Amino acid sequence: MERRLEGLSASPGIAVGMIQPLLLAEGQPRKDAPACEEREALHAAIARVKADLTRLSGRLSGIEAGILGFQIALLEDPELVHHAETRIADGLPADQAWIEGMAREILHYRDAPDLHFRARADDLADLRDAVLQALRAEPGPPLALKAGGILAAEDLTPSLFLRMDWQQGSGIVLGGGSMASHVAILARARGIPMVVGVGKVWADLSGPVLVDGDAGIVVAAPSAVRLAQAKASPVPAATVDDGSGPTLTRDGHRITVELNVAALSDLDGLSPELCDGIGLVRTEFLIEHALYDEDAQFEAYAQLLHWAEGRPVTLRTIDAGGDKPLAGYSIEGERHPFLGLRGLRLSLARPDVFSIQLRAILRAAALGPVRLLLPMVTAPAEVAAARAHVAEVAAALAGEGTRFVVPPIGMMLEVPAAAMAPGQFAVDFYSIGTNDLAQFACAAARDDLHVSTLADPRHPGLLAMIEHAIREAQALRRPLSLCGDAATDRATLEALLAIGIESVSVAPVFLPRLRSDIRQIDCGMRDRP
Amino acid sequence: MRQEAALLREARDSAELTNAVGLHARPSVKLTQLAKGFGARIEVSTSADGPWTDAKSLVKIMRIKAVQGETLFVRAHGADAVMAVNAVTDLIRRNFGED
């Protein structure tokens, strides 16, 4: 018998499959056992983690694969378990011995004077936890998703999402979560239907379910009729080619359509002909494992430029903090993380990391049209400080004889006070971040299901704020685009085009729908400059 | 300083770390993978007289934490010692192929 669960749509599309609950049991500490058994258990756990990482790295490229390759090579070195083995011989259970051994290694790096070596502590901590989980939990990799499986969980973190084996036809059901969370962004980028906020009942789901990411519902034990309907309805595929060329509204206004990208793989199979460029690169995801690796960052940006074939690529500097913690970088335990040390504020507080990123961006800008975008800007002085860092980095690169270009520098308009006074900032372009602007303007946290629907992108007050920013930008002849999720909703898109938005950027999965929506919308009586 | 005799069972040489990040993750992986391809015992040090570190252990190599500008001394014992030392110093001089 069908059962219908109401939730919120977080990523569009329809998926049908068997439920696979994600149970991240912490695992029980191991009981004492003979040393030979513990030794064997440790080696088996390491072998499992190694097999897991090897499988994962086969599907990745660039930075992601490089990081895993390093971790795999560490696991292959008998020296890594040497101390743990000694402690097991002393009578310690394998898990405790492993923690002790790894603590020594991690300490080596935490105290290193060189940033690159300090950053390696995270790799070791990652390995420590993975092996620990394999040691303590039931055998079997918990992160593998069967082909076409529907993942059910209370919540999901971005790092867990990236570790999962996502197959075509997979779907996600979350008890909690939010449609604006970063897992939702990642799910949309990969085209995985996701429904959030179904409540505690997620834990009762079993057997076949249908995830309707368009309507925001989950149907347990779906009927044959419903399954037939689901098969008949078109699946939004990012690779659908609806013809290249410019995107015009029905009454002939040219709208610039760009992509929001979090990883190189978001662009797999997608032709750059379908868009006008990359409007937003979320570098906090793209280079999260390479904060101190300038060359790896440069390589990642170069690959995006290569894909774009001469179209502009907008690199937003690391936007961590808020609901995007970055281990070893962002501040933990802030009382109000959305209002705290995040985005550009954090970059200015961590000039070491910021300078490395700026170096990589300026070098990449010598290869093609790069735009540098600053997130979460509040005060003109912050832009001035960022520009001073850019000037310093440019001087250093010039001194070394390294090729570079200082790209146009723009800012996100996501803080209401900044959106009302864009002309006060010394920037070359603007990008409106509707997710944050809506939550701040409506005083409704986007990760709180009780109030998140209040952060309505069509609130007249919010639209008035956006229109004000558009007019100021036009008067200054500075380009303005919009890169939030708001443009993915037909009615909201219509409202935004009506007040003068001429450039939008969305996740690749939404591109075909956005282009077809724009073609059906009339901008109407409004005069465009 | 390089010893050329092909049948020598012991060889040593040195090279300066000129790549930006020094003996960091990726260079260390390349170094250990190269070293494992030789039968000789290969050791490195940041000083001409040691202490010496097994070049086939990534964990140990990473512990050296050698940075740009330091000189890496390489020594090897075994039938293919000369080839091994040449290959390792060549890798260092080529900036670990990272340019």
Please tag this protein with its features.
heterodimer, A: 529 residues, alpha/beta, Glucose Oxidase, domain 1, Enzyme I, Chain A, domain 2, TIM Barrel, 3 domains, nine-stranded mixed beta sheet, eight-stranded mixed beta sheet, 42% helix, globular, B: 99 residues, alpha+beta, Histidine-containing Protein, Chain: A, four-stranded antiparallel beta sheet, 3 helices, 32% helix, disordered N terminus
Explain what the structure shows.
The complex is a heterodimer of chains A (529) and B (99). By secondary structure, chain A is α/β, with parallel strands linked by helices. Chain A folds into 3 domains: 3-23 and 143-232, Glucose Oxidase, domain 1 (3-Layer(bba) Sandwich); 35-136, PtsI, HPr-binding domain (Enzyme I, Chain A, domain 2), CATH 1.10.274.10; 249-520, Phosphoenolpyruvate-binding domains (TIM Barrel). Chain A has helices spanning 35-58, 62-76, 79-89, 94-110, 115-136, 158-163, 182-190, 224-232, 283-286, 294-308, 344-349, 351-365, 380-400, 416-419, 434-441, 460-475, 490-498, 511-520; strands spanning 3-6, 8-11, 14-21, 150-153, 171-174, 194-196, 208-212, 217-220, 247-248, 254-261, 278-282, 313-316, 370-374, 409-413, 429-432, 480-482, 503-506. In chain A, helix 14 (416-419) links the parallel strand 14 (409-413) and strand 15. In chain A, helix 1 (35-58) packs antiparallel against helix 2 and helix 10 (294-308) packs parallel to helix 12. Chain A is globular. Residues 234-241 of chain A have low confidence and may be disordered. Chain B has 99 residues and is α+β, with helices and mostly antiparallel strands. Chain B has a single domain, classed as Histidine-containing Protein, Chain: A (2-Layer Sandwich). Mean pLDDT of chain B is 85; it is low at 1-6. In chain B, strand 2 and strand 3 form a beta hairpin. Chain B has 3 helices and 4 strands. Chain B has a 4-stranded antiparallel sheet with strand order 1-4-2-3, with helices on one face. The chains are: A alpha/beta (529), B alpha+beta (99). At the A-B interface, helix 2 and helix 5 of A face helix 1 and helix 2 of B.
